Amino acid sequence: NMKFVIVFALLALASGKRFFNEDQVLRVSPTGYQLQVIEELVQRFPAIDYWTEPQGIRPVDIHVPKEHVAAVKVFLTRNRIDYEIFIEDLQTAIENERSPRPEQMSLATFDYNVYHTLDEINQWMSDMVATYSFISQVNVGSSYEGRVINALKLTRGISQKPQFVIDCGLHSREWVAPASCLQAVRNLAEAPAGSAEYNILNAIEIYVIPIANPDGYVYTWSDDRMWRKTRSDNGKFCLGVDPNRNWDINWSGPGADSGACSDAYYGPSAFSEIEVLSQKNFIASLGRVQAYIDVHAYSQYWMYPYAWTSSVTADDALLEQIATDSVNAIYSVHQQSYQAGPISKVIYVASGSSADYVYNMGVKCSFAAELRDTGRYGFTLPERDQVIRVKPHGHQVQVINELAERFPEIDYWTEPQGIRPVDIHVPKEHVAAVKVFLTRNRIDYEIFIEDLQTAIENERSPRPEQMSLATFDYNVYHTLDEINQWMGDMVATYSFISQVNVGSSYEGRVINALKVRTNSTPKPQYVIDCGLHSREWIAPASCMHAVRKLAEAPAGSAEYNILNAIEIYVIPIANPDGYVYTWSDDRMWRKTRSDYGKFCLGVDPNRNWDINWSGPGADSSPCSDAYYGPSAFSEVEVVAQRDFIIGLENVQAYIDVHAYGEYWMYPYAYTHQSGQIAMDSVNAIYDVNGQFYNYGPISQVIYIASGSTADYIYNMGVKCTFAAELRDTGNFGFVLPEAFIQPTADETFAGLMVI
Known about the structure:
This protein has 755 residues and is of the alpha/beta class. The chain folds into 4 domains: 24-97, Alpha-Beta Plaits (2-Layer Sandwich), CATH 3.30.70; 118-233 and 268-302 and 324-339 and 348-370, Zn peptidases (Aminopeptidase, 3-Layer(aba) Sandwich); 386-450, 2-Layer Sandwich (Alpha-Beta Plaits); 470-583 and 636-754, Aminopeptidase. The protein is 35% helix and 18% strand. The protein has 24 helices and 24 strands. Helix 17 (538-551) crosses helix 24 (741-754) and helix 21 packs antiparallel against helix 24 (741-754). It starts with a helix and ends with a helix.
């Protein structure tokens, strides 16, 4: 009967976790009177959730349950209100947001680039206290459900100092806030002696509350990812109070809600929430608090009081200056723009907020931050692209090969062949699922690069717009234009260096080589080929170093004398279109940029040579990084290099320089001489920095690869043909920081000179 159906439905709701399949987040851009129309939405559709409040002229982000999506869109369209879909499927965004983690974690294995449960965070706090003598744990108070609210105190020395409180996780669904606060503690704890971060703990005491609303935070993991409030039961139909509307500063005023089911419900009375009362008492008890910040998400704002009124504080000029300095510092890290200003003006009026109350306690430097992002992910800010090192055993290699079928967007940085580790670039939207796949198949893995974008941003340094040969910095990565200018400068400066046209690229760029020789007598020729795979930036950088060392070699040195005996040709950028694309669009691009009318562009120029073309180790799919192309020598860059080498007529040595893996290899049909030269090369490399390279035939050292440059050139009759994979062994992969250019280049040069 109907009564049974209703009871059954209520039981299901009470016991089940909330899911958001097909729910959407719409970004609405109201103008003028439309703002009032937007406010009517919640009256028609009480189940919608304003992620950003409809105040002022800023966009409004609205979480719309799937059963109302169509009706809400009709409502907006009829009222001529512009909107866009910011999150198409909220449940998918939530599932992509978090990664599996091992059940047992120590401080050494704690992953700061995933979101953590309350239990994991509490364990981390204990581990930090046990590890660092200048960190202690302080009890702030308890939650409605009896959970302890803890803070970490960081300071060096026992003298009385100004105090700074960092309050995180007051709104429980804003996971990036606690995650960022954990990172802040880590940065302070691990700061090297003498650094600004280290010295700051000599001057002030810092208190960090990672989870200010533990009941709500636990509930976001167990039941409802979008829960914002506390979990108190005030005898209403709906539970919880907004802990950032419950402070006794214009309590129950504008920007707070009397409806118990509202996410902005101000509660039955000011300080009704034990969590809020605990924090107030904690701050009051410290006695010397001079700075406070309440960390939230999202929208990228750095704000200061007041929130409850548009009137400015007596300290407005000071707060504005500090906020401006803060957003400038933020921009300098990753070029993320934050807006600074009073809370009521930057976002909306909000009565009963923590920042306003703490300011009125006498803490002049009181702030509220809204972290990333600006709405594309909202509260479900995903973790970042990662590079995972997988260690398959036996049949697991076949399982690893299945990954690409399930997740076509993943990118094998090292191929799954043999028993060697496999490095896989996993886009952020697949990180969680890939880790689950590996765990279920009992395949060991470790995170080699926690945040690929950060690694890319840390890889390169700013350089002056104008460079001469005298100011050219060999220890940073350079654009194609900068490299071409450098080549012109080398030719103009050194009489024994000339420039040779190798050919052109698909997009019409010239491929140049530098010819280095000291006189005009015919000599054996040695070709050094760099940058065939465009994302391997360390290869061109090392080859430029080699040219420099030869050019600047003092008379009588081994490097100087070698130019009396041979001609050396160095091609710094063999794949210019791909290289330019790694700077302008996609740092991980490997192939050429040719267009054959397929869905994906480009061909792997190291699978396009006519030596067992389209065989094992090459791929027929145009979207694969190992795509062999529509035919052998389909790529104009590959044809140009082949014809260039044939035209030289006396090539006796060739090396194709790549990264990464630290290998020095030779083709399939190797001779004893090839093996001896490779061994001597890796010994010379080891003598420079103690770096150990493996050596041997390409197919045995790394993998089988059909259509490769080295194999083809060996078959042309160039017996001393080699392929090198430079640093590193995977800690940075293709995004090797510039600090490693010099040591890598020095090693490489030593190996090249043996050949």
